[in-house]
Fold this sequence. Notes:
The structure holds 2 protein chains of 2 kinds.
Chain A: E1 2-11, E2 15-25, E3 30-35, H1 41-48, E4 56-61, E5 64-65, H2 74-78, E6 81-84, H3 96-107, H4 111-124, H5 140-152, E7 158-162, H6 170-185, E8 189-193, H7 197-203, E9 206-211, E10 214-217
Parallel strand pairs in A: 3-8, 3-9, 6-7, 7-8
Antiparallel strand pairs in A: 1-2, 1-4, 4-5, 9-10
Chain B: H1 5-8, H2 25-49, H3 51-87, E1 91-95, H4 101-112, E2 117-123, H5 125-136, H6 139-143, E3 153-158, H7 165-176, E4 181-186, H8 189-230, H9 232-240, H10 245-288, H11 300-325
Antiparallel strand pairs in B: 1-3, 1-4, 2-3
Helix pairs in contact in B: 2-10, 3-8, 3-10, 8-10, 8-11, 10-11
Amino acid sequence: MIEFRQVTKRYDSDHTALRQVNFHLERGELAFLTGHSGAGKSTLLKLLMVMERPSAGEVVVGGQVLNSLPRRQIPYIRRHIGVVFQNHQLLFDRTVFDNVAMPLEVMGASPRDTGRRVRAALDKVGLLSKEKMNPLQLSGGEQQRVGIARAVVNKPPLLLADEPTGNLDPKLSADIMNLFAQFSQVGVTVLIASHDIALINEMGRRILTLDHGNLIAGGNPMQGGSGGR
Amino acid sequence: MAADPTLRSRKPDPARGARVSRSPWREQAESYFVHHRKVASDSAVRMWRTPVASLMTWTVMGVALALPVALLLLLTSLQGVSAGWESSARVTAYMQLDSSLEQTRELAGEIGSDGRVAGLELIDRDRALEEFRASSGLDEALDYLDENPLPHTLLITPEENARSAEGVAALVTFIEGMDGVERVQVDLGWLQRLNAMTDLLARAVWALAILLAAAVVLVIGNTVRLSIESRRDEILVAKLVGGTDGFVRRPFLYTGAWFGLGGGVVAWILLQLSLWWLSGPVERLAGLYRSDFSLNGLSFDGGLALIISAMLLGWLGAWVAVKRHLDDIEPGEIAGG
């Protein structure tokens, strides 16, 4: 589903965010991405979202090499990737329902379809009763779940999360992680960037560890390269 | 290692565009229109939420649009006047004093049979004197004269196709060359000056209209730029969840068009108000000149055309702003550190 081949990302100021990173994730796999702050977690996610392009190597998502993707095509790739942010990026000028409906609206789904799918997604995260509220009226954990509902509403094959439990207490964090585990069970590939080591170890899943832009653990050993340094 | 074939098929295909799997095209088109309607009404509602700011923008647009349109209307009114006079342009031929009525009749027959002449009236010297006596008030002074000082006169109306300046000039030369004709008079000089003036005015008005249209585009562009700034978060999220450039642009283009609509309506109102305010004095002035000159208002079609052009200008202004500023907003900064 995801494949990184010798990916290097260098920013202008001699700052190398990622060095020859190699790994791949299968369909339905759930993996964590961890490392100190500035280790390159966000850069890796941005490469998957085509917010950034690699300086060298290839990023492949769903069989599509993203390097040479024309700018016009980027929106269509993003429709197949659900993203959850630490600060959830909800819009406070509209209801919970309208926030979750955004990916469907963008795709041009019919209103009937939209209603059905939004309610299914809200039901999944346990917020069906709050669809008409403004996200501001919700607690932090609920806001994060709205963000998750929005990320999965169009059933993307790939789900990315950037510190999804950053602001939450351990109980809520565990709930959210279980939610992600459920998605991976139905075939969604999930990659979660987090530095909540305790929680990650508890989950017992694959862990990709970045250190100063090098993937030092969790890569695919058979591929060699810097992944198994 | 090899990607799952079912996933492969989900990769974007340029030919498929934004189509959702399974969704028949009819439903797709329907939701496209539903979306357009929603975006259009959303943009309108947003405008109503800031009534003072919107009204100010509309007024600026209205004034900028009303000015050149008012001048254009004045111009068409003036051109109507000169066209009216041109069609009634008459060539007056004065006979020599010693030519007899018989000679004049003969000449009139000859001129009347010319293809360029539509109508001809002969005023013999006795009738001319009577008319002069009646209209001039020089009754007694005329009695002192030994004989009638007025010649026989021919009033010639040129044919429609000979009414141009050159046509009339050729006709004048033709008549001047005839025996017994003393002088031919045609009052075209001032008409030509009026025409030259309206031509000049027309160019000035068009130059002004183009400048003001550019001003309207810039005003709308700036307003839409502010609106883009205030909706930055929304644009970021829309781009993140896969909104195309067209999708992100749409609300702002509608905003521009709505500003144009408001501006066009304000311009129309301003025009009708000033017309109503000026029509009384204009009528009085025209009456003093015994002219049927009147200021023409904007017809319904004209008003509609004004509003549609205003909407197009608003749309264009929004497009300029969107082109310049929307591409700058990329979700790169959203995922921190």
